[in-house]
Structures are given as C-alpha cells and as structure tokens.
From TrEMBL:
Residue ranges constituting the Four-carbon acid sugar kinase N-terminal domain according to the UniProt record: 3-222
Protein family according to the UniProt entry: Belongs to the four-carbon acid sugar kinase family.
Chemical reaction(s) catalysed: 3-dehydro-D-erythronate + ATP = 3-dehydro-4-O-phospho-D-erythronate + ADP + H(+); 3-dehydro-L-erythronate + ATP = 3-dehydro-4-O-phospho-L-erythronate + ADP + H(+)
Top EC class for this record: transferase
UniProt source species: Oceanicella actignis
InterPro entries: 4-carb_acid_sugar_kinase_N, 4-carb_acid_sugar_kinase_N_sf, NBD_C, NBD_C_sf, OtnK
Protein name stated in the entry: 3-oxo-tetronate kinase
Cited function: Catalyzes the ATP-dependent phosphorylation of 3-oxo-tetronate to 3-oxo-tetronate 4-phosphate.
Length: 409
C-alpha cells in the first residue's frame, strides 16, 4: 500500500475510498483495524473507525492503532479523513487525533482542507461554506451530535488542538503546488483554502512526499497521480435480490430523500421513544421489511424540533445509541434473512449497520452519487451496501442506489 487513510466514520471512509478508486488505485475499506495483513495487491487502504463522536482518548488510541497498521502495510502517506462539514465538538475529535498523528509521524505544517466542491463544500479565507452559505447556516448547526456553529475552521481547529494553526489562502493555492508548499507553515497545522477541484489537485501535488494530510474526500483528488496512477471507473458486479433502505440521518438532504421515497415505497418510522423503550424489535421490523414487494424504508430521520425534544427527554447519547443499536440489530436480522441490498443513510447509522452485518472488508465499486460508492461486503453470501453520508445524494438517491446496486439503471 502507498496511501493509508484513517477515516473517522464509515460513510466518510467509503467516500474517500471512491475518490482513490476513481484515481486509479486498487483500494479496500476495512472495518476497524484489521488483525491480519492486507492483500499486497492493494494500492491504498481505508481503515474505517467510528471515532467521530467517541471520547477523545479512545479516538486517539484507535487512530494511532490504525496508523501503525497502515504503516506496517507499507503506506508512505497517511490521510486523516474527516467530514467535509468538519463535524466535531469543542473537545474534538479532529484536533486531538490530528495532533497525535502529527506527533507520531513527525509531520509539521499539516495540510488540513475539508473542501469537496462537487458536493458544494468550499473553504475560502479559512471559512467553510456549504453551497453559498457559511457552515453554521447550512443546517449543520442543528446536527444531533456535532452541531457546527462556527464556519471559521482556523478557530474551530485551534480550539481543539494544542498545535498552532496557520492558513494558506486561495490566492496562493491558485498559484499552484510550488506556491502552496512555500506557504505551508513550518510547524503545526494549516487550514488550506480550496474552492475548485483544480485547487485540490494542486494541493495534492504540493503534498507529494508529505507524511500526513487531513481532509474530506476532495483531499485525495491529486494524490493517486503522485504515485503514477491514472483516473479509472471502478467496476461493479450487480447484486440482485431483496433490498431495504435504513435511514437514521436527520440531515436536510436525507430528510428530503426520506420524504421522496415515502411516496413510492412502503415505509415504517421508528421514533426515539420507541427505540429507547424497546417498543419495536429488529426481528419484527425485518420480517415486515422482507414481506414487502418494493424495497421498503425504515427510518428514524426527523426534523430538528423532534430530535431536540427526544434529546431533552432521554438525553442525547441515550436517544442516539438506542436508535443506532436498533439499526445495527435490524441490519443483522435483514442479512440473516437474505437481504442482499442494504442502503443506509447517515454516518453513525452506517457504522451501526455495517457492524451489525459483521462486515470486515468492503470492496469499492461504482459511483452511486458524488461521494457514495457501491460497496460489496466480502463474505460467503452476496451483500451489497451503500453507505450514504447524511448530506449527500439527490432527492431520488434511495431508488437510484437500489437500482444501480442491482445493475438495473
Ligand atoms: N429521531 C431521532 N431522535 C434523536 N436522535 C436521532 C433520531 N434519528 C436519528 N438520531 C441519531 O442521530 C444521529 C445521526 O447521525 P448520522 O447517522 O451520522 O447521520 P448524518 O450522516 O446525517 O450525520 C445518529 O446517532 C442517530 O442515532
Ligand atoms: O466528507 C463528508 O462529508 C462525508 O464523507 C462524511 O464524512 C459525512 O459524514 P456523515 O454526514 O455523518 O455521514
């Protein structure tokens, strides 16, 4: 392996795995730190952690373990994959993990850039924009676990990190790789602006030989070329059979997708109260889901007021964990009963579902939407999944993804 990625959630992991695969690299996504050596034919490996909202000490320990494993597979460059909306809390985990990785690798002036222009994320003057609004007006200020209330990434990272945080403005980035290299600070981390894919390609060229980078999937755009790879379309072997959509994301894009899919498919809502009180079981939901003629939707996705009320009643962690546990058990029950296509919306929710089906390695397939590949769970039985980041995909994503997984679109 040449490039090793440590991803702080599972959808983010498949997002950057797609970028590396489309850059022409042979790449697999590993669920947690593997306990054996990887296939030597791989060019890149993505270790998916569920560390975004874990206690900081646990996130650091898991990330360092992932880093050691990747270095052991021969990786020359490590990427810490974070969310393109820089999802974190004042306690972390982006800052603490980045500090620990930089210390381990002896990296200074670490390029940190979550821009992902294709999905509307750009960094300008150190501020993160989603479309044409600053991060804190994008809906992310209402995220159930990591509300983002400040668009100034220099301030956000500095509050979480014990290293100095510098900045490389877009005017310098547009001057190209040499200018970027010259502008990177000699110590700490640097928020690097990028508003176009071309900027990310130059940032990637400037990063040739760098031990550590931090960003969303856009950070990978220029990297495969540094290792001699050329763009390619990842192959996909269709998987037909029973399909189900599971949605625990409460992000704007997902709520629109839920609203749309509800008009064309059988659907069941699971409320936080039902999950916390154990009023629904995974077995019953799985039986219902697999009795439908059209791939059904099971969702807990709710508007911010509903989420807030549930969190006030049960506590933030309790509500989230009960829902994630239910989706994990449901994914397990669905796979056990023969579901072959599972589309999941939400990073934490995807983490729960992937752990539920006991996936260890995911093979990366074709693009379903920007930042969302088809993935195939390695194992005896065919199981295709889509792990969709909360804010990704168009309004018809669920139907489109199910069709593409089956090779029907
Ligand atoms: N109705 C709800 N009330 C409270 N919390 C919820 C509800 N539905 C989902 N959640 C929780 O909100 C979180 C959503 O996070 P995630 O799945 O990562 O979505 P996203 O990708 O949009 O961030 C999960 O922890 C989930 O369990
Ligand atoms: O970079 C991104 O936006 C995604 O890859 C990602 O990490 C999104 O996380 P969730 O919205 O929690 O799925």
């Amino acid at each position: 392996m040449k490039i090793g990625v440590i991803a702080d959630d599972f959808t983010g992991a498949s997002d950057i795995a797609l970028a590396l695969a489309e850059g022409g690299m042979a790449v697999s996504q590993f669920i947690g730190v593997p306990d054996a050596a990887a296939d030597p034919a791989l060019d890149a490996g993505v270790v998916a952690l569920k560390s975004r909202t874990a206690p900081a000490a646990e996130a650091i320990a898991d990330s360092l373990a992932a880093c050691e494993w990747l270095l052991g597979q021969g990786c020359e460059q490590i990427i810490f994959k974070v969310c393109s909306t820089f999802d974190s809390t004042p306690q972390g985990n982006i800052g603490p993990v980045l500090d620990a990785l930089a210390d381990r690798l002896g990296a200074q002036g670490v390029t940190t850039c979550p821009a992902f222009p294709e999905n509307g994320r750009s960094v300008y003057m150190g501020h993160l924009f989603v479309g044409d609004v600053p991060l804190n007006e994008s809906g992310m200020q209402n995220h159930p676990l990591t509300p983002m209330t400040d668009s100034d990434l220099r301030r956000v990272l500095a509050a979480q990190s014990s290293h100095p945080v510098g900045h490389v403005p877009v005017a310098t980035v547009m001057d190209g790789a040499a200018a970027i290299r010259a502008a990177l600070p000699r110590e700490g981390h640097a928020i690097v602006d990028a508003i176009r894919d071309a900027d990310l390609v130059e940032i990637g060229r400037a990063a040739k030989g760098a031990a550590l980078l931090c960003g969303a999937s856009g950070i990978a755009l220029g990297l495969p070329a540094n290792f001699g790879h050329r763009p390619a379309a990842p192959a996909w072997e269709p998987v037909r059979g029973p399909g189900v959509v599971l949605s625990g994301s409460c992000s704007r894009a997902t709520r629109a997708q839920v609203a749309r899919y509800r008009t064309i498919a059988p659907h069941r809502e699971v409320t936080a109260a039902q999950a916390v009180r154990g009023e629904v079981t995974a077995e019953e939901l799985a039986d219902w889901a697999l009795a439908q003629d059209v791939p059904p939707l099971v969702y807990s996705s709710a508007d911010p007021e509903v989420v807030k009320a549930a969190q006030e009643t049960f506590g933030k962690g309790v509500a989230a964990q009960a829902i994630e546990r239910l989706f994990s058990d449901l994914a397990a029950a669905l796979a056990a009963r023969g579901a072959t296509r599972i589309v999941v919306a939400g990073g934490e929710t995807s983490g729960a579902a992937v752990q539920g089906v006991r996936a260890k390695t995911l093979r990366i397939g074709m693009r379903l939407a920007a930042g969302v590949p088809a993935v195939r769970v390695e194992g005896e039985r065919p199981l295709a999944m889509a792990l969709k980041s909360g804010n990704f995909g168009g309004p018809d994503f669920f139907a489109e993804a199910l069709a593409l997984l089956a090779g029907e679109a």
